[in-house]
Amino acid sequence: MIVVVGRWVCRTKLAGFLSAETSVKHACFQSHRAASIMAEEAKKLAAYAAVDNHVQNNQVVGVGSGSTIVYAVDRLADRVRQEKLNIICVPTSFQARQLILQHGLTLSDLDRHPELDVAIDGADEVDDDLTLIKGGGGCLTQEKIVAGCAKHFVVIADFRKDSKALGEQWKKGIPIEVIPMAYVPVSRMIARPGNSLYSLCLSVCQGPVVTDNSNFILDWKFEQAQNWKEVNTAIKMIPGVVETGLFVGMAERAYFGMEDGSVKTRNTTVH
C-alpha cells in the first residue's frame, strides 16, 4: 500500500511538473506569436506609408523583394484600382515579379524602362546614416541595380531593423554574391588575418544559397562598425565577387513601422 501511494505521489508530482512545463512552453509560444503579429503589422504600416507618400500617377516603380514588400504591393494594387493610376512595375526578383503579376499590375523591365521614378524595398538593417544591409534573401544584386536606376530609393522596415550602427540588430553578416567557382578563393581572401570570419550561407538542405542569377551567397560577419563605403569597394574589388549587400549612400528615406502603431521616418542628410 505504501509503495502504491508512493508511486501515486510521484506520478502526481510528475504530472504537475509536466503541466508547469507545458504552461511555460505555451506562454513562450503565445509571446512569440504576439511579437510576430506586431512585427507584421509594423511592416504593413511602413509599406503603406511609403506607397502613399511616394507613388503617383504615371510612374515607373521599382518593386523590391522580401516579406515587407508584400504589403507594399498590396497597397499599390489597392491604389491602382481605387484611383485608376497608371503604374508600371519593375521587379527586383522572381518573387517580386510574381507579386506584380498576382496583383494584376503592369509588369516591365529595365530594358523597356531603364529609368525609374521611385524604388521601394525592404532591408535587413538600417543605420543612422541610411546605410543598409540587404540581401538576406539572396536578391541583393538585382535589388541594387533597380535601386540605382531610380530617382528616389525608399526603404520600408519594421522596428527590429532600426539601428544606430550596422550589426546591432542583424547578426548574420553582410551577404556577398559570388560566382560559384570563386566562393572558396573569395572566402579565403575575406578571412585573411585582420579580417572578420566569414561563413557560407546554407539553405535548409545544407547546400549553398543560390541567387536568381545562379550565383552563391557568402555572409561576411564583421565585429565592429566600419567605413562602409571603403569596405564595399574593397570587397567588390575581389575577383569573383558580383555584388555586396551594403547599400551605401543610396536610400533617401526609410520608414519604420513601430511597436506603438506609429511610423518613424529617417531621411538622409546628403543625397
From TrEMBL:
Q: Which CDD domains does this one have?
A: RPI_A
Q: Indicate yes or no for the key word Lyase.
A: no
Q: Which GO terms describe its biological process?
A: D-ribose metabolic process; pentose-phosphate shunt, non-oxidative branch
State a GO cellular component annotated for this protein: cytosol
Pfam entry (one):
Rib_5-P_isom_A
Give yes or no: UniProt keyword Transit peptide.
no
Q: Which GO terms describe its molecular function?
A: ribose-5-phosphate isomerase activity
E.C. numbers: 5.3.1.6
The pathway to which it is assigned is: Carbohydrate degradation; pentose phosphate pathway; D-ribose 5-phosphate from D-ribulose 5-phosphate (non-oxidative stage): step 1/1
Q: Which Gene3D superfamilies match?
A: 3.30.70.260, 3.40.50.1360
This chain's protein is named: Ribose-5-phosphate isomerase
Q: Which organism is it from?
A: Neogobius melanostomus
